[in-house]
Amino acid sequence: MLQIQQLDYYLPDGTPLFEDLHFNLQTQEKTGLIGRNGSGKSTLLRLINNELNPDKGEIRLQTAPVLIPQNFGQFDHQTIAEALGIASKISALQSILEGTDLSEENFLILDDDWTIEERVQEALAYWSLSGSSLNQQLNTLSGGEKTMVLLSKLALYPGSLFLLDEPTNHLDKIQRERLYRMINDTKETLLVVSHDRKLLDMLPQIAEIEQKKINRYGGNYSFYKEQKIIEEAALASEILHTTKELKKAKETERQTIERQQRLEARGKKKQAQAGVAKIMMNTLRNKAEQSGSRLKSTHDEKTNQLSQSLQELRNEVVDKRKMKLSLSNAQYHHGKLLIDAVQVQVDFGKGPVWKEPVDLKIYSGDRIAIQGRNGSGKSSLVHTLAGKLMPASGEIRKAGYSSVYLDQNYSVLDPSMNVYEQVQVFNDALLEEHTLKIRLHHFLFGPGDWDKPVSQLSGGERMKLTLCSLSLSSSPPDIIFLDEPTNNLDIQNIEILTEVLGNYKGTIVIISHDEVFLEQTGINRTYSLSNI
Q1: Structure pTM?
Q2: In angstroms, how far is CA 259 from the centroid of its own chain?
Q3: Quick check: 209 and 47 in contact, CB under 8 A?
């Protein structure tokens, strides 16, 4: 179905993204594609989809690929039919059935697909979008609805290679369950980029982009994790062994040179005592020096090889960097009432957001997940609880507490600043410059990133900078409000964030559709808006 051989691809600035990459997929294989932010997952899908051209190598396909991207800007001015790639067929079918245009061209366009209207409505119905007009503009739909429209392609293009880029990002819990069921049941060939660990566990094999290449694992995500633990242990063992070998080689070289020097000194002394002619002594000395030089060259070659091997091994470790984030504990003991929302309702001018007003008490130490369908008003509720939005009615009583709001738009950041200027804003502990830069390094911002404008950061980088800024506060927040915090993080950093929030003793109010993340964060309460 897909063969990639000796593929090289360079970014516009000349940085190699892939070097000698090999990968293949057989018909009906389902593979999860993972890798760090910036490793090239989406770029690889675009290369396969012929949107980009490789600098070297070839991509062979048995059938045209179907890409379902994670961003939908290119479809905003298209209708549902156009986004699904069926607009010309629908138009040809209608012209034929109405008798307005029975040209051969229309029959060629239709290609005997007389049931196209029924098939597309059936595909949309699976996502509870039945009855949707195929002429509706995609920019009138929510992110979740756009995703579901494009996922309908799986039913419309049988036998294709489907490239799914973060398909769960905009889906709520019920919609995700539908996607899981579809992926489990389908016989189509899938290459799925995702950080949704539940989805990845459903796929029979995982491929990881690392070190500009792809490594394949013959099992699901849980199997991959087990193998990575084994690999990392083996890597650590190899580094230790190579370090010892290098130390031993250097010591052997030192001892050999010292022994050679002692032998030469004794030889000179004996020659002098024996009255050897000066010309003969020079000849013997030259031979000894040549012998010593060859010996040193041999040892140098060995130590250089070991040094190079050790550096290559250490580079692999450097490439596995993770964010380092720690939060001090909040000041309140567990059980103190921090927020008491009584009969709260919000209104954006089109009537109440919820069918019934919200009553919710939040105590220190609570870990509350706000749940509900897309469009149920989850973000509006968290905005209101965090004081970002005034309720239209009702009352919110608050104790004196500190809080931070991390939304999915990273609105805490100033896009007009650069990275270093941004952390200075949050430096109320008055940390010195070198300490701030060390902290930035902990969040994977090296010297080359300090002057980078916030506006040019990727989604994952913006979230990391937000977390870095949070860590600079002289006193920890009593409440952390989070709105889909994992959407733009790679799996490694999701796991780090999970660990940090798991160790944090303050109060958490969170919106997330990532079930694994919620479970591992230690959520102890849920508040559902599904019936409100």
Answers
A1: 0.76
A2: 56
A3: no
